[in-house]
Amino acid sequence: MSTAVVLAAGLGTRMRSPLAKVLHPLLGRPMVGWIVAALREAGVDDIIVVVHHQEDAVKAALLAQDPALRFARQEDPRGTGDALRSALPLLPATGTVLVTAGDTPLLQGRDVRRLLDAHAAVPGRLATVASFHADDAHGYGRIDRGQGIVEHGECSPDQLAIREVNSGMYAFDAEHLHAELPHLQAHPPKGEFYLTDLAGRLDGGATGVTSEFPATAFAGVNDRAQLADARGVLRRRVNRAWAEGGVDFADLDHASVDVTVVLHPGAVVGFGAVIEGTSVVAGSVGAHCVIRHVNVAPGAVIHAGSVCEGATVGPGALVGPMARLRPGAVLEEGTHVGNYVEIKNAVIRRGAKVNHLSYVGDADVGERVNVGAGTITCNYDGVKKHRTVIQADAFIGSNTALVAPVTVGAGAIVGAGSTITQDVPADAIAIGRGMQKNHEGRASQLRARQTR
Q1: Rounded distance between C-alpha atoms, residue 257 and residue 279, angstroms
Q2: Which conformational region is residue 334 in: left (phi greater than 0), alpha (psi within -120 to 50 degrees), or beta?
Q3: DSSP letter at 36?
C-alpha cells in the first residue's frame, strides 16, 4: 500500500480571486483534482489532502470526485514542512510517503510512478527528490548535490547559476518523517518550516535525486495567466486521448472537452466546440457549439453555433444552426429543430419539425408535427407555467401563438397568424385571427399626408 500527501492549504493571493487557488476549474475538474487523478493513475492507494483555506469547499469538491480521500487540517499555514506535519497522525508507520503540491495540475501518473520506483530501487533510502532543468530557474529551489536543496532567496551566486531545480515532489521513508518532522526548525524571517530540510544532503546514499523530469509536469499555477496556460495543455492532452480512441476533432487545440464528458468512437467535434459536464456524445457537435449535460445520440447533428443544456438529442435528430436547447428538451429520433429555435422542457417526438424562429416551451409535440416559423407557445401567465400539447400529424401555420393550456388534436391544421386560446379538435382547421379589411386607393392618400 502506498500513501501520498497533497499540500492544498494555500489561498493563492496572486490569483486575485475569492476562490481558493486549488479549486479553480480546469476542464470540469478542480485544479487539485488533477493531482489526485494522477496519483490514482500511478496506483497510489491512500491519498491525504492537507487543507486550510475554504476547507469545506475543497473537501466537497474532491470527495465528489474521489470519495476515498482523507484530509488533514493545517491550523496556521507556516510553510510546506508545517503542512506535512499536520498530516503526520494520518501517515503510516512504515513504507513510502509521496508528497506533492496541489497546484501542479499537469502532473501525470507516469511521473509519480517513476519517482516511487526510483525511491524503492535504493534500499534504506530516506528521501528522493524529483528534479528538472529550468531555462529560467528564478524562484525555484536549486539542487546542490552533496549540499541539499537551497531555496532561491538563500542561494549563493554560484548556486543561482544552477539550472537543476526542485520540483516539489518527494518520496520519503515514513519512519524518517515520524522521526524528523516534529523537530523541524523554523526559518526566518517568516518563521516557516521547510519541507526541503527533510531531503538531506542529496548525496546519493540516504537521500538522492531522480532527475530529468519534464519541466511541464511541475508547472505551478499561481495566477490566471498560468491557469489559462495549464488549461491549454490539458485541453490538447484530453482531446488527443479521445482522438486516438476514434473521435474526429476538427482541431485538437480549438475544442474544449471536460474530463467528465464521454465521447463515443465516431463522434465528431467541430472547431471551437465546448462540451461540458455529464455530456455523452455519439453524434456530431458543430463548430462553436456549447453543450452542457447533453446526450447526443448516434447520427444526431448539432449544427454550428447552437447552445444546449440539460437536453437529449435522439438518433438522427438535427439541431440548428444557432438553436438553443434548454433543460428538459427531449428530441426524439429524426426530429428537426432549426435556426433560432428555442426548446425548453418540451418533448419533440419522432419525425416532428420546428425549423425556424420559434419558441416551444412546456410542450409535447407529437410525431410528424410541423411547426411553422415564428410559432410560440405562450406557457406563462405571470404566475404559473402551463403546458401545450400538439398531437401527431398536426400542422401549425407560421406566426401562431398557442396560449397554454391548450391542445391541438391529431391531424388538425392551425392557420398562419392565429392566436389559439381554445383546444382544437382532431382533424379540424382552426383560424384565430382578426378579419382583414382593405381600404382601396387609400395608400397614396396616406403617403401624401405623411410627406407634407
Answers
A1: 9
A2: left
A3: H
- SS3 string, 151-175, reads CHHHCCHHHHCCCEEEEEEEEEEHH
Q: What is the mean pLDDT of each run of 10 residues along the chain (452 residues)?
A: 92 92 97 98 97 96 98 93 96 97 97 96 95 92 92 91 95 96 90 91 90 92 96 97 98 97 98 98 98 98 98 98 98 98 98 97 98 97 96 98 98 97 97 91 90 80
Contact 198, 180 (CB under 8 A): yes
Contact indicator for 139, 160 with CB cutoff of 8 Å: no
Any domain includes 452? no
Helix (H, G, I), strand (E, B) or coil at 78: coil
Do 326 and 425 belong to one domain? yes
pLDDT in tens, 46-64: 999 999 999 999 999 999 9
Strand, coil or helix: 49: strand
87 burial level (CB within 10 Å; 0-12, 13-18, 19+): buried
Q: What does the pLDDT read at residue 37?
A: 98
Residue pLDDT, tens place only, 100-139: 999 999 999 999 999 999 999 999 999 999 999 998 999 8
Positions marked active-site = 356
What is the rounded CA–CA span in Å between residue 313 and residue 319? Answer: 8
CA distance 372 to 245: 41
Q: At what angle do helices 109-120 and 31-41 cross, to 10 degrees?
A: 50
The answer to whether residue 448 sits within a structural domain is no
Dihedral class, residue 12 (left if φ above 0, else alpha if ψ from -120 to 50, else beta): left
Element (H, E) at 230: helix 224-244
Report the predicted TM-score, pTM, of the whole model to 2 decimal places. 0.92
Which residue in the block uniquely carries the three cell numbers 499540500? 7
**C-alpha cell at position 426:** 382532431
**DSSP string covering 262-297:** EE-TT-EE-TT-EEETT-EESSEE-TT-EEES-EE-
Q: Among 202, 218, 234, where does a domain finish?
A: 218
- CA–CA distances in Å: residue 86 to residues 46, 109, 114, 191, 287: 16, 25, 26, 16, 49
Verify that 200 and 263 share a domain, yes or no: no
409 in the same domain as 279? yes
Using CA atoms, how far apart are residues 87 and 94, in angstroms rounded to an integer?
Answer: 15
Domain, as residue range, for 297 = 248-430
The answer to whether the CB of 387 falls within 8 A of the CB of 361 is: no
Do 89 and 74 touch, CB atoms closer than 8 A?
Answer: no
